[in-house]
Design a protein that fits this description.
Layout: H1 2-13, E1 22-27, E2 34-39, E3 48-61, E4 64-65, E5 67-68, E6 71-72, E7 76-85, E8 90-103, E9 105-106, H2 111-118, E10 123-138, H3 139-142, E11 154-173, E12 176-183, E13 191-202, E14 207-217, H4 233-237, E15 244-256, H5 268-284, E16 368-369, H6 382-394, E17 399-403, H7 411-431, E18 439-443, H8 462-468, E19 470-475
Parallel strand pairs: 17-18
Antiparallel strand pairs: 1-2, 3-7, 3-15, 4-9, 5-6, 7-8, 8-10, 10-11, 11-12, 11-13, 13-14, 14-15, 16-19, 17-19
Length: 476
């Protein structure tokens, strides 16, 4: 267990160690120095793939648009790309697009120009080819919770990139169809950009299906077929605007390579865990302690300050059995691990009265402790007080509620504080059903110490001083 925690800390602090080409460990043993070499296994994930699909381009940010009043002019588009995953979150795509947009409705909100446009029968059709370089960000892997160990099959991807665009834009009116603009590729005005998002589903380790929506920025006012001349019929009706369009597609991604998994679907934290398990197995086979570990507590004898630790005891870094409450009883044998008590009582406290006489019922009449300079009854004392009420009412005797303090402060201050503590406890008992005729309260100040050696208070640990700040019951 210790070795696993150590390796995990090392992996998180220095992740490069997990993926180094070669890691050499040298350890001491009874034999000559042993060297363990952990060599990289090389790539274990497919990083190349191809993608292809088709869809519908729609122009809405142009002089001529595709949708108006429920009517849609539908074109077509297709794409093919060669993809390279550079990491589990980022990749590149070299993509070819081909398609045709169709548009025939004027993009204007002005009533006068709208009426003029209604009398102008114009339709646009643009055939385009594009080559672009796209960046691919796997948002699901980037934002994936590190504590999620489930195998996931859905992923959201973001895309953005630039390229060159070639097109032929046609316009059809009452005079027929004619070519309005032709833009050839690899010219300054052929640059364009596109960005969007896709939702992928892993059908298998080889094939993904993806729905994608891209926004294409042509940077061109003639792409819609309205003409590049500002005096053309279309441009006179509608304000000049860049002819951008949306392209919604559905396609497949096929992963290439000899490995069973793709890098873009890889969870790197699982890689860390697998490396930890591998290293732990190797370390378990190495003799870590030259001088051995006689008490088998996980601490080598060379550094063990307690060579006879009992079997099953928890130890600190020096091999000493833990004693959380510092009462001299190790946690293995301590029946009250967090509360100090004497060895003869198995590490649990014994409730002695001020005169050294054990009360008649230690459970019901045990002492109540207080915070420094406080007479407030702590919530953890209410079960003791409620048991005391039942005990007082069921017995014939009378009792004195005695208050005491530690040795800090003056004698007069502590006398008053002890009386307040005793009276608070008495009033609690009476208000919760105790017979008031059986109770009397008095304060003994700083002269009534459960641990007399704590004078001054600096000579004792705080738990002993708190035990002196108490209220206890004394039979009359």
């Amino acid at each position: 267990m210790k070795s696993k925690l150590t390796i995990l800390s090392l992996a998180l602090a220095c992740p490069a160690v997990m993926f180094s080409q070669e890691m050499v460990q040298t350890t001491s043993s009874t034999n000559p120095v042993e060297t363990t070499s952990l060599k990289s296994e090389g790539p274990r994930f497919n990083s190349w793939s191809i993608s292809f699909g088709g869809g519908v381009p729609l122009m809405q940010n142009a002089d001529l648009k595709s949708i108006q009043s429920g009517n849609t002019l539908v074109g077509y588009s297709a794409y093919f790309s060669i993809d390279k995953a550079l990491s589990h979150t980022f990749g590149l795509k070299l993509q070819y697009d081909r398609g045709e947009t169709r548009q025939g409705y004027f993009n204007t909100k002005d009533a006068a120009t709208a009426n003029a446009a209604a009398n102008l029968q114009v339709a646009g059709r643009t055939q385009y080819d594009a080559i672009s370089l796209l960046g691919d960000i796997n948002l699901s892997n980037l934002l994936r919770r590190v504590d999620s160990k489930a195998d996931y099959r859905w992923a959201i991807h973001g895309y953005a990139g630039v390229g060159v665009l070639a097109y032929r834009a046609y316009q059809k009116d009452e005079f027929g169809q004619r070519l309005m603009t032709e833009n050839k590729p690899f010219k300054f005005n052929s640059l364009f950009g596109q960005a969007g998002a896709g939702l992928k589903y892993k059908i298998s380790n080889r094939v993904d299906i993806e729905g994608r929506l891209m926004y294409v920025v042509t940077g061109d006012d003639a792409f819609d077929g309205g003409g590049s001349d500002q005096y053309s019929a279309v441009n006179r009706i509608s304000a000049k605007t860049s002819d951008n369009f949306f392209n919604g597609t559905l396609g497949l991604t096929v992963h290439l390579g000899k490995h069973s998994n793709s890098l873009m679907w890889h969870d790197p934290l699982q890689e860390v865990y697998s490396k930890i398990d591998e290293l732990e197995t190797k370390i378990d086979n190495i003799q870590l302690c030259k001088a051995g570990d006689a008490d088998n507590d996980g601490v080598c004898d060379d550094w063990d300050r307690q060579l006879d630790t009992p079997a099953g005891a928890r130890v600190d870094g020096s091999g000493v059995a833990l004693d959380v409450d510092l009462d001299g009883v190790i946690d293995l044998y301590d029946k009250c691990v967090t509360v100090p008590g004497p060895v003869e009582n198995n590490g649990c406290p014994v409730n002695n009265t001020g005169n050294g006489v054990v009360s008649a019922d230690e459970t019901a009449m045990s002492g109540i402790e207080f915070d420094l300079n406080s007479d407030r009854i702590l919530p953890n004392n209410t079960p003791i007080l409620n048991s005391a009420i039942s005990y007082i009412n069921s017995n014939n005797g009378s009792y004195v509620v005695v208050g005491a303090t530690d040795t800090r402060g003056t004698e007069s201050y502590n006398q008053t504080l002890s009386e307040r503590r005793a009276n608070n406890v008495k009033q609690y008992l009476i208000s919760n059903g105790a017979n008031s005729a059986k109770l009397e309260a008095k304060g003994n100040g700083k002269l009534d110490l459960k641990y007399p050696e704590c004078d001054p208070a600096s000579k004792c640990p705080e738990w002993k001083n708190k035990a002196n700040r108490r209220v206890y019951f004394q039979a009359k």
